[in-house]
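Consider this record:
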Amino acid sequence: MLASRLIPALVFAALAPGAANAQPTAQPLPPVERATEALAPSQLRMAQTFLEQARAAQALGEYDLARRLAQQAALDARLTWGMTDSAFLRNAASDVYERSARLRYELSPGRIRGSAPPSIAAR
């Protein structure tokens, strides 16, 4: 049994001389691919739509739904930011993300009028 583990390890060590001393080379991240870049505006529109729907759900008193929609808007905004190198789209995505974070804070338990803070409600 020991030999079955030792032989592959020795073969690997023989085939990769200096692998133990190899240092990773720092390489710049590749630029955003054109196909991904082309989809960023529609991803941003989805984030904005989710944020608008979250505000509408909040107005109707559907706080759990509003919280989920705001979270989805934040996720889509972050995805948009990563999909593009455009400063305009990144600024817009950051704005949507910040507004969704503000809404999620407003909707957090204990902040909503008439609900108890989680520590009190759990007792």
